[in-house]
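User: Can you model how NAP sits in this protein?
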Amino acid sequence: MKPLPIIFITGASSGIGKSIGIYLTEKGCKVYGTARNPAQYKNFNYFPLLALDVSKPDTIQTAVNEVLKLSGRIDVLINNAGVGITGPLEETPYDAIDHCYNTNFKGPMRVIEAVLPAMRKQQSGLIVNITSIAGAMGLPYRGIYSASKASLSIITETYRMELKPFGVHCCTLAPGDFATNIAAGRYHVAPEKTSPYHPLYQQNIDQMNAHVSAGSDPIAVAKSVYKIMNAKHPKVHYVVGSPLQKFSLLLKKVLPSKVFEKMLSKHYNL
Ligand SMILES: NC(=O)c1ccc[n+]([C@@H]2O[C@H](COP(=O)([O-])OP(=O)(O)OC[C@H]3O[C@@H](n4cnc5c(N)ncnc54)[C@H](OP(=O)(O)O)[C@@H]3O)[C@@H](O)[C@H]2O)c1
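Assistant: Here's the modeled complex, given as C-alpha cells:
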C-alpha cells in the first residue's frame, strides 16, 4: 500500500492555508499545519498545528524536525504564510517593507532550506509557493505586496532548476481574491487627510477590502493544490481566481503596456 502523502503547510490557522489543510486531510493526506501561536486556536481540531514563525529559523527547524520525527518524511511543502501591506510607496516606512519581505519572500526561503535535506534524501518532493495575481503587475497602493510576491515567483523559477537534479519539484500558485483574514492582518499606512495621496488612497483601500470580502471560498485554492500534487510534471506557474482576474493576466501579456496601464488606472480611479 502507498504511504499517505505527508503535507507541511505554513500559515494554516486561517484562510487559504486552513482550507488547503482541511481539503487535503479529506483527500487522505497526513497534514501538519503551522501557526505562530497554536495555543491561540484552542478549538482547532482539523489537523495538528505546530508553532512556526517564518521569520524565526529556530521555530522552522523545530517544526520540521517534529514532522520528520512523527512521519519520517515531508512530501509536499505549501509555503502559504504571508502578510498584506498597503500604502503609497512614498509614505511606506522601510521597517514595514522589511517586515513584508521578511515574511513573504525570505520566509518561504527559510522553510525551503529547512525541508530540503529531507526531500533530497527522499529524492522526491513538491514545493508549492503561494504567490498572488497581484504579483504579476505593480498595483497602486500595493506596490510592496506585489513586489514581494513577484520576487517569490521569480526565485521559484530558479529553485525549480536548481532542485530538479534532486527529484524535487517547485511551482507557484497565484490566487486572485479570496475571502480570508488577510485584510485584518495587513499592515497599512494610515490614510491621513493631510497626505497628498488622500482621498484616492482611502478610496482604493475601501475597494481592496470590498474585493477580499467579496472574494471566493478558498476551497478553490485547495482544489488547485490537489491537482498540482497529482500532476506528473507540474508546471512552473499556476493561477486560481475568477475568470476576470485570470483574464487580467492575459491582457497584461497581450496588450501594449500603455493600454494595460490605462485600463488598470481606470479600474482604480486614478
Ligand atoms: N486572500 C486573498 O485574496 C489572497 C490572494 C492572493 C494571495 N494570497 C496569499 O495567500 C496566503 C494566505 O493568506 P490568507 O488570505 O489565507 O490570509 P490569512 O487568513 O491572514 O492567513 C495568513 C496565515 O499566515 C500566517 N502568518 C502570518 N504571518 C506569519 C509569520 N510571520 N510566520 C508564520 N505564519 C504567519 C497566519 O497565522 P498566525 O497568525 O496564526 O501565525 C495565517 O495562518 C498569503 O501568502 C497571501 O499573501 C491571499
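A couple of observations from the model: The mean pLDDT is 96. The CA atoms of residues 61 and 113 lie 9 Å apart.
User: Helpful, thanks.
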